[in-house]
Structures are given as structure tokens and as C-alpha cells.
């Protein structure tokens, strides 16, 4: 089991690290919210479900509109900009970390976000089931001494609904190809700054490079090399945000680039901005 990464002062249960926020419950005090700044690199999984109305989320610099019967989710290490206004919606927010996840009876592939989607739409019947499950969780977490097993049963139900909806439009993908893509994503995450060669990854996954190319392209829309490049630039943006005194040279070396000039050109090619321009945007 991994160590807990959920902020201790935010958990609503004594046995597991978890917090829920509804329109009438769970909001943190303004002075506590101020400690986290206008944005944070998430140390936990975050979910926002909207039954009716609308909300806006900014994750890794991308703005996502969340509307009726839609769920937004973010994963650990993503950079989430905190909302400064209350949501114009009937919504629930839920957060928990890997310690909580490790106590569930099954794994949920959508949490690796293999299809690179941060938002999921639900048909009305599934949306109502999900809302009612969130509602029960909300009631359970009003009491800090609620048995963790009871809470985990409903977290499992929530994640099962989400996992089903995440993949419902992608049933054409075979289980084998999805497993290979999940393996690819995990290998990239575990070895990102080593910048592994595509041939090395294919060998680890016991597939040919051509097969790996087809599978990654099928699930992500980009080639394996482009996927790794995009992921490196996302990581660069996160690190710039959290350490704005880092030089381009230091950042390049941290991410496995031997040539800072090449890294700078690649950053501009992918983002449309120079690194200096990105620093300037952050200071505004």
C-alpha cells in the first residue's frame, strides 16, 4: 500500500483519507483554501459530478466546461486551478488518494485515463444512480466515525458507474489492445524523464514497434513518440508553475534533455509559446 497523500486536515473520516463536498456540506473555510493558492498540483484523485447546471474546470492549462449529467475527473500530479466562485450547479465533489483506492476490491482502468478524456457524459438513468450514490456518501461522511468499509462500498459503486461510462463509447477497442495501451502509459509514467526509446517500450510489452504504434494511435490519436513528447511538455509546464526560479537549462536536464536549446524549441512547437512567455503568463 502506498502512503497517504491526502491532506490530513481535509479528510472527513478517521479511517480513510476522503472528502466530499456538496452544495450544503463540506466546504472548507476561506482561510484554509487560501493556504493552497490559486492552483495546486493534485496529490489525490478529484471528481466533480454535475446533475444539473454548469461548472468550469481548468486542468493542466486546459479549460473544460462541465454541464448536466457530466463528470470531470483529475488525477494525482495534474495541475488544477482552483475555482474562485461557487459552482452554478447541483454538484458533488469527491477526493481521495491511493491509500483509499488500494482498499477497494477491484481496479478501475479509467483512472489511467487511457483515452485522454477528462470529462464523461452519462445517460439520465445512470446519472441519477450516480447522484443517489454520491448522496449516500455525503450522508455517511457527515459523521467522522462512520465505518470505512461502508464508505468504501459506495466509493466502489461510484467508480464502477464512472468506469462503465468512460468506456461505453469505445467498446470497439479490444481488451488486449487496451491492456497494451495501459501498459504503455504506465511504462511512460514510470520512466518519463529517462525518455525511453519506442523499441525499448515495445520490447518490454512484448509487441512489435508497428503493433505498438497502431495501438497507441488507436487509443490516443497520436504516435508513441508524440505521446511521450506531449507528456514531457505537460510535466515541464507543471514544474515551471511550482518552481518559477528554475532555469531553462535546469528544467531541460531534469526532464532528460541533454540539449536545452532543443528542449526550448520543442516546448514552443507543442505549446505555441516560448518558455519565457509561459513564465510571463504565470506572473500576470
TrEMBL record:
- Enumerate the Gene3D superfamilies for this protein: Homeodomain-like
Pfam families, alphabetized? HTH_18
Ordered alphabetically, the record's keywords are: DNA-binding, Transcription, Transcription regulation
Q: Which InterPro entries match?
A: Homeodomain-like_sf, HTH_AraC
Q: Which residues form the HTH araC/xylS-type domain?
A: 182-281
Q: Which GO molecular function entries does the Swiss-Prot or TrEMBL record give?
A: DNA-binding transcription factor activity; sequence-specific DNA binding
Classification via PANTHER family: ARAC-FAMILY TRANSCRIPTIONAL REGULATOR (PTHR43280), TRANSCRIPTIONAL REGULATORY PROTEIN (PTHR43280:SF32)
Q: What is this protein called?
A: Helix-turn-helix domain-containing protein
Amino acid at each position: 500500500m502506498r502512503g497517504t497523500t491526502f491532506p490530513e486536515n481535509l479528510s472527513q473520516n478517521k479511517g480513510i483519507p476522503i472528502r466530499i463536498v456538496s452544495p450544503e456540506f463540506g466546504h472548507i473555510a476561506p482561510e484554509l483554501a487560501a493556504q493552497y493558492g490559486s492552483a495546486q498540483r493534485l496529490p489525490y484523485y478529484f471528481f466533480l459530478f454535475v446533475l444539473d447546471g454548469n461548472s468550469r474546470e481548468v486542468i493542466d492549462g486546459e479549460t473544460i466546461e462541465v454541464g448536466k449529467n457530466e463528470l470531470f475527473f483529475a488525477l494525482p500530479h495534474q495541475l488544477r486551478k482552483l475555482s474562485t466562485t461557487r459552482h452554478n450547479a447541483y454538484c458533488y465533489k469527491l477526493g481521495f488518494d491511493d491509500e483509499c483506492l488500494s482498499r477497494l476490491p477491484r481496479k478501475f482502468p479509467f483512472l489511467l485515463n487511457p483515452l485522454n478524456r477528462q470529462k464523461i457524459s452519462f445517460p439520465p438513468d445512470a446519472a441519477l444512480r450516480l447522484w443517489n450514490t454520491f448522496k449516500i456518501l455525503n450522508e455517511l461522511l457527515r459523521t467522522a466515525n462512520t465505518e470505512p468499509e461502508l464508505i468504501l462500498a459506495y466509493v466502489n459503486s461510484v467508480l464502477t458507474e464512472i468506469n462503465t461510462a468512460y468506456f461505453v463509447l469505445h467498446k470497439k477497442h479490444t481488451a488486449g489492445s487496451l491492456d497494451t495501451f495501459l501498459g504503455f502509459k504506465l511504462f511512460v509514467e514510470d520512466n518519463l524523464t529517462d525518455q525511453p526509446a519506442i523499441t525499448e517500450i515495445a520490447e518490454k510489452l512484448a509487441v512489435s514497434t508497428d503493433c505498438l504504434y497502431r495501438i497507441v494511435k488507436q487509443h490516443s490519436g497520436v504516435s508513441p513518440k508524440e505521446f511521450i513528447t506531449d507528456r514531457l511538455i505537460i510535466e515541464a509546464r507543471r514544474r515551471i508553475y511550482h518552481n518559477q526560479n528554475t532555469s531553462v537549462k535546469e528544467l531541460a536536464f531534469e526532464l532528460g534533455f541533454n540539449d536545452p536549446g532543443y528542449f526550448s524549441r520543442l516546448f514552443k512547437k507543442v505549446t505555441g509559446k516560448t518558455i519565457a512567455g509561459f513564465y510571463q503568463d504565470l506572473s500576470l
